[in-house]
Amino acid sequence: MRLTCPNCGERDIREFTYQGAASMLDRPDPEAGPEAWHAYLHLRDNPAGVTRDLWHHGCGCGAWLVVTRDTVTHAVHAVELVEARDAG
Amino acid sequence: MRFSGWRVLKEGLTGNKGWSPHWRNPDPKTEYDIVIIGGGGHGLATAFYLAKEHGLTNVAVLEKGYLGGGNVGRNTTIVRANYYLPGNSEFYSHSMKLWEGLEQELNYNVMHSQRGIINLFHSDGQRDAAVRRGNAMRNQGDDAHLLGRDELRKMLPYLDFDTARFPIYGGLYHPRGGTARHDAVAWGYARGADERGVDLIQNCEVTGIDISNGQVTGVQTTRGAIRAKKVAMVAAGRSSQVAEMAGMRLPIESHILQAYVTEGLKPFIDHVVTFGMSHFYISQSDKGGLVFGGDLDFYASYAARGNLPGKEQVMEAAMTLMPAIGKARVLRSWGGIMDMSPDGSPIIDHTHIGGLYLNTGWCYGGFKAVPASGFALAHLIATDRPHASAEKLRLDRFETGYGLLDEEGTGAQHNLH
Ligand SMILES: Cc1cc2nc3c(=O)[nH]c(=O)nc-3n(C[C@H](O)[C@H](O)[C@H](O)COP(=O)(O)OP(=O)(O)OC[C@H]3O[C@@H](n4cnc5c(N)ncnc54)[C@H](O)[C@@H]3O)c2cc1C
Ligand SMILES: [Zn+2]
């Protein structure tokens, strides 16, 4: 598996650290209540197929990335900067 | 058909014509009292104990592939009871006791070999942690011994004791730990369940779970609809997909774990040995292959095969710990789909839906758990009360924050175990 970082180009997977489901970006409101926080912290869709997850390019530009990929085939469909998402 | 030394001898002398299949291959009935989704170690053991301990035999195990084709046939077969936290400690201790009687109970040779496990430590801090763990194991009634460097050198002369980076200080020795033949465990439980009347149905994928008024009523499968009063979800790495059929989202991420085996070698490694400075463990199979593994690949995956960096980590650790291994050739490597929970510990519980039970979160350690997990889940299904050995393996511990079972002390968060 190789990831194409928007800043750095195609790189070996060892340059990246995996964090988990991209749903981690959708932090609930502090007052959203325990159920929302439980769902955010612990529950996962965990799809067999296309997923979106967070990777950190620690040995490259240091950016956080949202990777759209297939958990069954390991095909990588898209790599986007979290920053770009937050700006948009 | 009972197995015995006498029987093996007789069949050997008469052309092996008297053996019969180990289980029937029935078509599914339209209704059962209990349906178990998943014919891995845990599903098969659950069916066995339902029949044996509770006399419940109107039971079907539905397996989408073939029996034992999942993680139960892909693991590195280590069996141990060296957990630290109350909750895990009594559960794995119970499992070890069941292991010790398993071959007699199943009349099946599962090649359970209590060759001992040695967890190496490489610093003062790790030694303190090993002492603490060893004391917890002994308090639980299991066995643990602290070995110093000199004793260890005699037992494991093939290790590199003096690497500048990770010198070996000693090891925590768990003599009752060891290995077992993984396929035989699945087959033994399958045969025992089938003999008692349980239907083992292969090539039967569950595609839906029927629920009406908050109560489970049956399942949809690729071999037709099956009604059931109780349904247990025991799908290991596929737990999230199965639970989704009941409208549930689980605290589970599925990750890939790889393992490796070398060509057959003469006896060389007598125990199970684990490295304390990088995730690496090794044993030698009865056929002579060195069986070893290490960390997860650390990204969500259902591919049942890993990437090269995972292999590199394991090979580097192997070479650091026992340079002699460099001469052995790796025959095969493979991967399995691990049902990782946020705290690294399992779940055996009922769900909020009546008659629907959940068994998941085995992470990379569910093989040793097979007997106790089947025993506890059977108890839960039969009596609707948790078995004492497994009452802390609750689904709601993440929601309440009460009773988390974080053995590693890294936090009850995904991707930390
Ligand atoms: C490389 C590796 C090394 C390991 N090493 C060890 C070890 O040394 N010691 C240890 O204790 N543990 C170890 N484990 C972990 C252990 O193998 C697992 O935790 C355990 O086997 C999981 O439970 P199971 O046997 O029931 O799973 P599985 O055998 O995976 O059973 C689940 C079954 O459910 C079936 N299924 C899924 N979805 C459906 C559906 N919709 N309908 C019907 N059936 C379905 C699957 O086909 C599968 O057969 C290891 C795992 C791996 C991959
Ligand atoms: Zn980059």
From TrEMBL, chain A:
Transmembrane segments: none
InterPro entries found in the cross-reference section: SoxD, SoxD_sf
Annotated GO MF terms: sarcosine oxidase activity
Gene Ontology BP terms: tetrahydrofolate metabolic process
Signal peptide positions (record): none
Protein name per its UniProtKB record: Sarcosine oxidase, delta subunit family
Source organism: Pelagimonas phthalicica
TrEMBL record, chain B:
Annotated ranges, domain Rhodanese: 34-78
A Gene Ontology molecular function term of the record: sarcosine oxidase activity
UniProt keyword Flavoprotein, yes or no: yes
UniProt cross-references to Gene3D superfamilies, sorted A to Z: D-Amino Acid Oxidase, subunit A, domain 2, FAD/NAD(P)-binding domain
Localization annotation: Cytoplasm
Keywords, comma-separated and alphabetical: Cytoplasm, FAD, Flavoprotein, FMN, Nucleotide-binding, Oxidoreductase
Cofactor(s) listed: FMN; FAD
E.C. numbers: 1.5.3.24
GO cellular component, as recorded: cytoplasm
Biological process terms in GO annotation: tetrahydrofolate metabolic process
Reaction equations catalysed: sarcosine + (6S)-5,6,7,8-tetrahydrofolate + O2 = (6R)-5,10-methylene-5,6,7,8-tetrahydrofolate + glycine + H2O2; sarcosine + O2 + H2O = formaldehyde + glycine + H2O2
Family: Belongs to the SoxB family.
PANTHER family cross-referenced by the UniProt entry: FAD-DEPENDENT OXIDOREDUCTASE DOMAIN-CONTAINING PROTEIN 1 (PTHR13847:SF287), SARCOSINE DEHYDROGENASE-RELATED (PTHR13847)
Protein name: Sarcosine oxidase subunit beta
Organism of this sequence: Pelagimonas phthalicica
Lineage: Bacteria, Pseudomonadati, Pseudomonadota, Alphaproteobacteria, Rhodobacterales
